[in-house]
Inverse folding.
């Protein structure tokens, strides 16, 4: 096609587009918006591919899907040949002559430079957004009222300082850079940025090697070396590298840790650090501005500050590979891809098991403590029995004199009857009937003496503590019979009032006899200052609902109010030479039988001790 004809068609298409652009505001309501997305190198070049994906997604989500996207790429941006730019402008003008876009989005520095260079020919009335581009690459003075920028401000020097912070022994940093015009422009910029680091680390550029040569060199790096992936759109061999294939291959063979400035490559072999965030960073900001423009705001009125690096983040897997500790990371860093701990993975299972172990431990401790307490109670009860026995022996000794007096009476009667029988037997005609009476008297006196001795032996004898069922009336009567001689020797009267009904109880009869003996003897002791004619101890049994009750009352001075609460305490005694164990033992025995004991003063005078035992 002749050049004059080609230029004529381009001029006609441009004129038509300008006319349509001027009338674009009269489009029918509800007609889908048209967005022309101009890519710098192609549709599969990171990080711009990810930026475009997020922008498209956010615009569609916010505009309800009523948006049509048209993608074009500046393939010539991979080389230094600019001769094809003019025809490409003519192509776009002709293509959209009848369907002028509602918004032009230039993604990346080459696209931004292209649209600014040909702004007067690329639909000057259509709003334009320059994004995913460094502020350094935008000619701010050439922006029109229909243009706006959502750019980035990458601090590459801070990225290298991060390497030196994490790996302070680093001596060499190899920078990956290509040979495209954009790569070359940035290499010159970074050389100036890195000049101040020359005394701390050696900077080596990979721009003169093909990628295969770079791989070979990276596999044989010396110690204390790091790699910084900046840009490599096209390598020295003229090969374009799309997506993440190149950086993944480099990470696989390199014997040094690798860093970069965009999280589009994060998780693919780079260690980490401060980076641009694709999802929440410049892409989200650019999409938000695009939506505002599509909703009617003038592009030139929207001013957006450049997006800077986010807080550092690191790949835990690469940290393990290169022996980087979390304590080596900059303040505010986050660690990704760290496998959850056993606690985080099995938290509820561990909590359940721990709770079960604690519960079992608590149960075991309670059982052990219960066993120890029962053993201690058993030992304590045994000691009380021993003390009770000692107390019985002491009481038996005190009663020895009165018992001797009592037993002398039947023994004396026996002796008299024997002497009388001898006299009668020496006579010529003894009276046999009288002899029979004498022998009968001897037998009765012998039985009386035997009973006195038996009672004394049973009182002081240490017998096994065995429970049995018995009538409390009988035990009280037995105790009274046994202590009657002692009462007589003290000039006291011992009375008994038995209940008219049986009082069956279950327990240790000898222990309960000890309780009654102690209470009766204490009652006698309490009347030591009372006139002999008034010394009366009354032992009475009664039925009180489900309890059998026995009371021991005396006619002594009674119990002082301030002493009532101390009577049953161990080692407390109101007697001058008392041990203070008698009533304490009494209470222990009564409570061991499930009963209770209390002391009170009688309204007739004197004290009353009441023992209540549950019926069997």
């Amino acid at each position: 096609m002749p050049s004059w004809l080609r230029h004529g068609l381009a001029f006609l298409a441009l004129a038509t587009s300008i006319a349509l652009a001027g009338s674009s505001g009269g489009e029918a309501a509800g007609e889908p918006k048209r967005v022309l997305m101009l890519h710098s190198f192609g549709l599969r070049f990171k990080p711009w591919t990810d930026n475009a994906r997020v922008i498209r997604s956010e615009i569609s989500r916010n505009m309800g899907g009523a948006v049509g996207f048209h993608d074009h790429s500046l393939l010539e941006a991979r080389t230094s040949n600019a001769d094809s730019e003019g025809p490409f402008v003519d192509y776009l003008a002709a293509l959209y002559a009848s369907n002028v876009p509602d918004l032009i989005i230039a993604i990346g520095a080459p696209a931004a430079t292209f649209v600014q260079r040909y702004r007067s020919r690329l639909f000057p009335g259509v709003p334009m957004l320059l994004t995913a581009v460094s502020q350094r690459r935008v000619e701010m003075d050439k922006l029109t009222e229909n243009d706006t920028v959502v750019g980035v401000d990458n601090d590459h020097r801070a990225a290298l300082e991060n390497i030196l912070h994490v790996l302070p022994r680093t001596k060499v940093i190899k920078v990956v850079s290509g040979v495209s015009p954009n790569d070359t422009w940035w290499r010159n910029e970074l050389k100036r940025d890195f000049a101040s680091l020359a005394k701390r680390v050696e900077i080596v550029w990979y721009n003169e090697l093909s990628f295969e040569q770079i791989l070979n060199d990276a596999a044989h790096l010396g110690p204390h070396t790091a790699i910084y992936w900046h840009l490599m759109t096209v390598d020295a061999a003229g090969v374009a590298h799309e997506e993440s294939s190149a950086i993944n291959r480099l990470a696989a063979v390199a014997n040094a840790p690798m860093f970069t400035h965009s999280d589009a490559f994060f998780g693919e072999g780079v260690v980490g650090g401060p980076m641009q965030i694709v999802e929440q960073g410049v892409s989200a900001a650019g999409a938000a501005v695009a939506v505002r423009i599509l909703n009617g705001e003038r592009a030139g009125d929207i001013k957006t500050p450049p997006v800077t690096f986010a807080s550092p983040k690191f790949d835990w897997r690469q940290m393990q590979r290169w022996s980087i500790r979390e304590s080596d990371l900059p303040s505010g860093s986050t660690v990704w891809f760290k496998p959850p701990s056993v606690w985080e993975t099995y938290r509820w299972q561990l909590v359940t098991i721990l709770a079960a172990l604690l519960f079992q431990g608590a149960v075991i401790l309670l059982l052990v403590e219960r066993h120890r307490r029962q053993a201690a109670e058993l030992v304590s009860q045994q000691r009380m029995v021993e003390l009770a026995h000692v107390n019985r022996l002491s009481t038996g000794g005190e009663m020895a004199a009165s018992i001797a007096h009592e037993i002398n009476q039947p023994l004396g009667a026996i002796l008299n009857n024997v002497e009388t029988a001898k006299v009668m037997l020496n006579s010529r005609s003894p009276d046999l009937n009288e002899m029979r009476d004498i022998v009968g008297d001897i037998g009765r006196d012998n039985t009386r003496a035997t009973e006195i001795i038996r009672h004394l032996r049973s009182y002081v004898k240490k017998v096994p503590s065995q429970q049995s069922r018995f009538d409390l009336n009988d035990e009280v009567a037995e105790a009274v019979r046994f202590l009657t001689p002692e009462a007589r020797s003290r000039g006291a009267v011992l009375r008994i009032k038995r209940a008219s009904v049986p009082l069956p109880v279950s327990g240790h009869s000898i222990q309960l006899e000890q309780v009654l003996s102690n209470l009766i003897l204490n009652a006698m002791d309490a009347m030591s200052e009372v006139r002999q004619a008034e010394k009366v101890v009354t032992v009475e049994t009664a039925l009180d609902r489900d309890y059998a009750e026995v009371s021991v009352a005396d006619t002594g001075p009674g119990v002082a109010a301030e002493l009532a609460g101390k009577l049953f305490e161990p080692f407390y005694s109101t007697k001058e030479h008392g041990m203070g164990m008698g009533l304490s033992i009494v209470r222990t025995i009564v409570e061991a039988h499930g009963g209770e004991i209390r002391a009170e003063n009688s309204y007739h005078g004197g004290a009353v001790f009441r023992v209540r035992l549950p019926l069997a």
